[in-house]
Amino acid sequence: MEHENQTFVREFILLGLAWNWELQLFLSVLLLIFYVIILPGNILIIVTIRTDVQLRSPMFFFLANLAFMDICYSAVTPPNMIANLFNKQKSISYQGCMAQIFFIHFLGGAEFFLLIAMAIDRYMAICHPLHYATMVTRAVCWVLVSCAWGGGFIHSMIQMGLILPLPFCGPNKLDNFFCDVTQIIRLACTNTYFLEFVMFINSGLVSTACFILLLISYGALLIKVKVGSSQGKTKAASTCVTHIIIVFIMFCPAIYVYCHPFRDFPFDKLVGFFHTVVFPLMNPMIYTLRNKEVKVAMFRMLRKYKPRRGK
After folding, report:
1. How many domains does one find in the chain?
2. 200-217 pLDDT tens trace
3. pTM of the full predicted structure?
């Protein structure tokens, strides 16, 4: 890098998931299986929701956006990880490292805010069913999704604003398979204690607060459904439980990773692998498997486009 950028590091060396090559190969094969099976499934979810007229409710609109965000999120780190598996020098350029950090926090933050939007949607549907159709319109849905993307962008820019000015003048080895703020800032040639504390607040505490608020809101909705009328009670409860599962899958690994920025733990890399690669692909699939309407619509679309046999 140029001297005026206050860094002499051109690339970072990634030590990978493990020193054992066979284990890295196994994890890469696992990743490939997930991509071959689940990635097309997520694309099918988006196409089904976009084309089926019976899936026009806001809930499915948010689900399609969640699937799209998860596809983008799961494409940030795996390409470099797979490429490095067959390279002796497992590295990533300085620019590529900064790009990974930006998109991880941009897309991850956007997903967190989208989950909050989905919680608002369920609150309106369960607590104000008579006004739901007039209050949660398509325009409102687009505003909520736009706010989710905007919130993720602001969160990511805060991270980048703290990282880019740091000088990197010597150490360049990352004990991981991708770049993230928790390790990058420790390589800077300056005292980063204050920055680690800011990262802890910006990522760790904010994620924890959102997680707790979402659990409280869905718990209140489940109580509301239980004491309410029996009409649609089972479906509403099942939807809330599905949302709770997704909230746990999304927030728990993030809380684990970003709530201890000052030291490393043995399971950090494994949790990071599932958080950045595996879990994002699973979220929409879990939602679909628990939603009869989406499953029926998918089978209906597949039958519609199934090649007809000759007479």
Report:
1. 1
2. 888 888 889 889 999 999
3. 0.86
